Amino acid sequence: MAEIAVTVVIDRLLSLLTEEARLLRGVHAEVEDIKRELLFIQAFLKDADAKAEKGDTISHGLKAWVQELRETAYSIEDLVDEYIHHFANRPRRSGVIFDFLSKVSCLIVNLKPRLEIVSKVKDLKLKVGNLHEESSRYGFISSFEQESGGSSDTINVQWRDPRVKALFIEEAEIVGIESPKGELINWLVEGAAELTVISVVGMGGLGKTTLAKKVYDNKKVVERFVCRAWITVSQSFKMEMVLHNMIKKFYEAMKEPIPEGMDAMDVISLSGLLKKYLEDKRYAIVFDDVWRLEFWGFIKYVLPENKRGGRVVITTRNVEVGCAIRESRFHHVHNLQPLSPESSWELFCKKAFQGSCCPSELKKISIDIVNRCAGLPLAIVAIGGALSTKQKNELEWQKFNDNLGSQLETNPHLESITKILSLSYNDLPHFLKPCFLYFALFPEDNSINCAKLVRLWVAEGFVKGEKGVPLEQRAEEYLNELIHRSLVQLSEVDRRGTTKRCKVHDLMREIILKKAEELSFCHVLGDEDSSFNGKFRRGSVQKGTNTIAVETIHRNAQIRSLFLFDIDAMLRTGISFTNFKLLKVLNFEDAPLYSVPEDLGNLFHLRYLSLRGTKVKILPKSIGKLQNLQTLDLKHSPVDALPVEITKLKKLRHILAYSYQLDPEVVLCGGYWQYARGVHIGEGIGSMLDLQKLCYVEANNGRGLIDELGNLRQLRRLGIVNLMEEDGPSMCASISNMKYLESLVIFSKDDGFLNLQTISDPPRYLRSLTLQGGLSRLPDWLPILRSLVCVVLFNSRLSYDPMDVLQALPNLLELVLSNAYGGECFCFTELGFQKLKVLRLYNMKGVKTLKIHEGALPVLERLEIQPSPQMEVPSGIRLLKTLTMIDFFGMPIEFARSMLPQDGQNYHIVEHVPNVFFHGIDANGETVLSLR
């Protein structure tokens, strides 16, 4: 982690030396020296961090050195930011005389601060030099040596690998693997004669090794594969050793003497020997705990395809490794799932109560503990074992649960959890570690909005720029990497395949929270936290009104980020940003905040400001001083206008300022919105060229605003409300300039008509389109948008069936129509909507018939139909074999009765659909009836 801190500082120094060189008189040489020393130290830090993370067998001296280096790096970063903050606020004047006087004045005014900076820089230079000299005593390997053959992974540190236990677990101790075990055995002993590759993928502690070993030792597998081998690969594999072990295991299995001279063979010779030996054999091999794509990329060429029914099994935490086998013609990928609640409880009782029943007084706390394990067998076994040694006392167990984080550090029974889960963190490249540690800032069980997380990482400076690639896109790649490494779990994916929300396992969060606090990366404060006196870079105040926690935040003037969750103490006592001049992130989401002080403008370094869900109505004019602000999030707040000063913020990338109002006509359908409110923005919006998201803007300011939007060529998402029909052509002209646009929402004024026919160059990457308002016809450019995955049309009031146009969109996944057509029949023709998964038809009061031809909607999964009193039960539903759910809203009672299983004449139409629901309203509110 010291590597991260030093890398951040080097980047800041490079920026300072290039962009602010003229202000460094007197310290330029010293800053250059500090940069040079840090670059030299950086070459050893991968090795230093790796040694420090190995555990308590490493000397305290090394840990102290790494900690001091990290704190020194933080001090340098603070000094750089204070320097930039001070000199960024110099008065600027125009004119030759004024410019000369300004320079003289600045030299006089800034003389004392510069002398102070010179002194601090010289002190830090001396400190960094001393750290450089001390580094030699620890025998670090530089990154250059590692690249040329050395590796920090070969450090001779003795520690017990808890994964070995998984190879020796008795069958009677295992719970919940019967189904995946049977599936894997079947793949091994049956199927094609061609070589088949099977991967088992899942996070650490999920039981991949245990499952694979039980399959490997199964009688059917043993009888079918006499020639077999089990190879543990792990992170620090050497290919020579892997090949050597494979040959040895195969020869031993066949009871043949091991070839002489193997120890002297290189990789090529070993590969040739192994491939030749396996050429005429039916073999099976398990590669357990594979971490690197490179491993499979090489080893696949060593395994011969002899059409004798060979099988290869790979266990891995990395989704990319697991999916790499798909290049093989015959393959299977098994994504191992957490244990079910029932299996989790059974396993817990086996370990905590030696198979006996749980005492009634411990039932509630035991369920809470099992729920925190979230189906992770490793955690259930370890925690159950630890509790089996404690008294069967509710208070004792409650204390254990409340202090689980510290138990993971100190309880020897839980050592395996910490070590196995920490392996994945330690394996991360340095640039991903702060991104992963960031999850510690969010409360337990919190499902995090992925788009928000991406913006936060960018604001923190975690994301490295790449020419031609937006920072947000790079951050999404970072998130995907963490997901693929099974460190981050998906909690919500929309029908378009977009990851909406994510989280980390509760126990993984406990581990990274301790790591983050140890590294001063962040600190979480709540009602129980009353005595923390340490320093931290990021603060997260959670749960309650503890004023001591607020005081702790105020004592840390160097804090970079502040998050508030479920708290109002700071807000009741007032907010002042005087002490927080280095803040980059300020998140007040859903806090009971009613106003923002004028000194908000003093936060020169602020990049992210969220007032989402607060009661704030007016932004201070001083917001125009936030020259580095990237994200302004005002969603679901009462703010309805942005101050004119907002256009001074040239680095702003995201303006999110809208709220929805439910359409009373479709409120039964899960509250699908139809009306949206945006914010008023004055002239000058066209100068904010970095904007990527602008949602939503009131178009009431007229054509001048709409014309300015055409300058925003980097926009990915745009929302416009209250657009008048006569402004449609200007809107089209502006949209034609937005070639990167991915999402477009347009609402007409007073539910009038939209005139959007004249977009000369439609944005080819557009994925989502929402239009609310009358349409004389669908826009001519709509069929050209081959990337569209979602189309929403509200109150279009078309005079013809729009399906002819819409069903030809090749990648459409979701279609929502509300009062879009005034006719009596929708027709879904053969081969129409080939990829559509969700179809929602709302407020179609005049529609009598849905004609669904064979071949239409071949992959439709969900169908929703909202009040259509005259509609007949669509007979074509019986052709939709992939349907999993149908919802009918507000339909006549006779309509519903006709589909009852007992005597409904239309039951045969929907009997193949697993879930059919009827929604209505009675005196008690909404009611939901299931067909079965």
Structure characterization notes:
β3, α12 and β4 form a beta-alpha-beta unit. 40% of the residues are buried. The protein is globular. The chain is an alpha/beta fold and 932 residues long. 35% of the residues lie in helices and 16% in strands. α3 runs antiparallel to α5. The strands form five sheets. It has an 18-stranded mixed sheet, with helices on both faces. Strands 2-3-4-1-5 form a five-stranded parallel sheet, with helices on both faces. It contains 30 helices and 30 strands.
Outline of the structure:
It is built from 30 helices and 30 strands. The protein is of the alpha/beta class.
Radius of gyration: 32 Å
Structural class determined from secondary elements? alpha/beta
Shape: globular
Low-confidence stretches: 92-98, 100-109, 144-160, 666-671
Helix content: 25-40%
Mean pLDDT: 84
How many angstroms does the end-to-end distance come to? 56 Å
Largest sheet: 18 strands, mixed
Q: Count of helical segments?
A: 30
What's the number of extended β-strand segments? 30
- Strand portion, in percent? 15-25%
